[in-house]
Amino acid sequence: MNHLRRTTRRQTTSDVLLWAVLTILAAATGPDPTTEPGAFLLITGGRVLALAAAVLLGRPWPWAAAALITLVAPWDLGVGFATMDLSWWPGLGVTKIVPITSLTPAIIWYAYLAGRRVEETRLPLAAFLGVAAAGSGLVLASGGRPEDWIGVGTALVATYAAPYLLGVLRRRLGFQRARAQAAAEAQARLRERTRIAHDMHDSLGHDLALIAVRAAGLELSPGLTPAQVTAAGELREAAAEATERLRQIVGLLRDQGQSAPLDPVGEGVAELVERARASGMDVTLHQTGEPAPLAHRVVQEGLTNAAKHAPGAPVTVTAGPRRVSVANGAARGRAAAISGGTGLAALRERVRLAGGTLTAGPHGHGYELAVELPRAGEADPRPVGGPVPAAAPRSEHDQ
């Protein structure tokens, strides 16, 4: 019974109005109550009750409503939507195409709802076969003329099959639209996760590395008590562990199928180097002209790697319009974090998208990260559709 219950007052009102309209149409095509009161009560009264049942069943089971209205509709095979003269064909005459009644619009509506709302096809198919059997019985009762068979066949197609298939098409288009919307929302969530991952890695990871460098410098400072040295070492190890946990979180958030964003953070190379100096790093900057668009990201990655894997080593930053490099000497202290491999891989992808090349590896007694970029307006030297050069082997600086 819960299927028959209307959930809103609007549904109840609309169904009552629909039943009233169908009752008026059924009464208008039935016996005259003034001349045939008995037939009016029997025929029209039965139709009114059947229409009430059809409207009641129409929401949960529209196929049942269509079949029930069909059984009580005042069918007349001599009244149709169109008339065709088929006398040129042997055995045929004037034929009514798509026989209609006053209740035909209601049948079409419920047939459409059956395709729109009902996913299974067994019950709608069974109702259609029942209607087809009733139509065949009507034709046989009328003498079985070929014209009547044509009329019933066209009525089945136009009144039942076509609206039902239109409803099925509408339902499937709705499913496709819902799936497309869900996919778009999922992609938006992945893009946001990727953005958060890059922001965490680029900003928070760099700051944690500088904290570890400060702690390492403090740990090696003379004049500290053993307890203070121990505290500084614990701070450095905590910063290293936090960096590793951050790397793991970034790995979960990143969408590996997406390229990295190309926009740098809102500070220049000089400000970034100055911030590294303030943290205790020995950094020398050589800047010639306006740095390349990716200079900030390259320098940030190089300084972070140097702070993690070569604490205390002098670092030389060179930033120009086409070439950016970060080179460090030999480490003077213990490494602040283990290698992760995500930062350099993301930077390599950014450089590749910009049409440049990245090299990273041992340089003298230390390590160098260098990026070469094309001039503004210069064509990408890589062949179109060609393979991407293989990544260089990882070292302890690859984070």
TrEMBL record:
Entry-linked Pfam families: HisKA_3
Recorded catalytic activity of this chain's protein: ATP + protein L-histidine = ADP + protein N-phospho-L-histidine
Source species of the chain: Nonomuraea typhae
Superkingdom in the source lineage: Bacteria
Residue span of region Disordered: 374-399
Protein name, entry field: histidine kinase
Residue ranges constituting the Signal transduction histidine kinase subgroup 3 dimerisation and phosphoacceptor domain according to the UniProt record: 192-256
Chain ranges passing through the membrane: 88-113, 125-143, 149-169
Keyword set, alphabetical order: ATP-binding, Kinase, Membrane, Nucleotide-binding, Phosphoprotein, Transferase, Transmembrane, Transmembrane helix, Two-component regulatory system
Compositional bias annotation for Low complexity: 382-393
UniProt GO MF annotations: kinase activity
CDD domains: HATPase_UhpB-NarQ-NarX-like
Uppermost EC category: transferase
EC number, UniProt record: 2.7.13.3
PANTHER family, sorted: NITRATE/NITRITE SENSOR PROTEIN NARX-RELATED, NITRATE_NITRITE SENSOR PROTEIN NARQ
